[in-house]
Amino acid sequence: MKIRKEYTCPLEIIHDILKGKWKTVILWQLKYHGKASLSQLEQDIKGISQKMLLEQLKELREFDLIDKLNFEGYPLKVEYFLTEDKGKKIIKALEIMQEVGQEYINECRKS
Amino acid sequence: MKIRKEYTCPLEIIHDILKGKWKTVILWQLKYHGKASLSQLEQDIKGISQKMLLEQLKELREFDLIDKLNFEGYPLKVEYFLTEDKGKKIIKALEIMQEVGQEYINECRKS
DNA sequence: CGGTATCCTTCGCGATACTG
DNA sequence: CAGTATCGCGAAGGATACCG
Hints:
The structure is a homodimer of 111-residue chains.
Chain A: H1 10-18, H2 23-33, E1 35-36, H3 38-44, H4 50-62, E2 66-71, E3 77-82, H5 86-110
Antiparallel strand pairs in A: 1-3, 2-3
Helix pairs in contact in A: 2-5
Chain A binds a DNA duplex (20 and 20 nucleotides) through residues 19-22, 37-39, 49-52, 54-55, 70, 74-78.
């Protein structure tokens, strides 16, 4: 974990966990897929590189928001998915933000 | 506004709006104060500089999450507050995140 | 008290190449 | 298909000084 300092507000720790361009979008994708492989996520999240994706997935795992399952044999296969507790709870917040985001987009279309 | 590109996911626009270390904490403070002056916020948000605070407040205003009221006369006085629509709606998401953040903090204390 | 401007350091993140 | 390593640029953000 990359957490060190004392936090004045619980929102600060959430910022440290979710910061970066990709984390919320990755969580959002996992919400819809239920389970997804690395290459699936790479295809669905436009613009992300494999390096960034793996980096962010690793951090999300360290914070118990997602987990993964490794399958034996070739070709290699993994499944990433939201954790029942923290992962699915944070999704509730993202659902609201998604709605607000949609409002911004609708307003842009008007003008 | 700093928004340009096309968005694949509404969460991307929210990221562009809320990104940075301070925005969520500022919104959270305004939720509790109702209305707050610059100096009040500066005191309550530990570690923030006046420059950062003003910068972030300006951006939050541009995105209609907060607004401000200027009072005439000396000493100068302003009041910052959440907007009824977008500001108070995004707070709903922050409330959930705040809860999850508290869980992380509680778990840290155990270990 | 509220707000603007400048300088400087850190780090997010994109590109690219390589391994099991 | 999944994952690791390196390099470099540009933006975020901290310190500091100054203006209405």
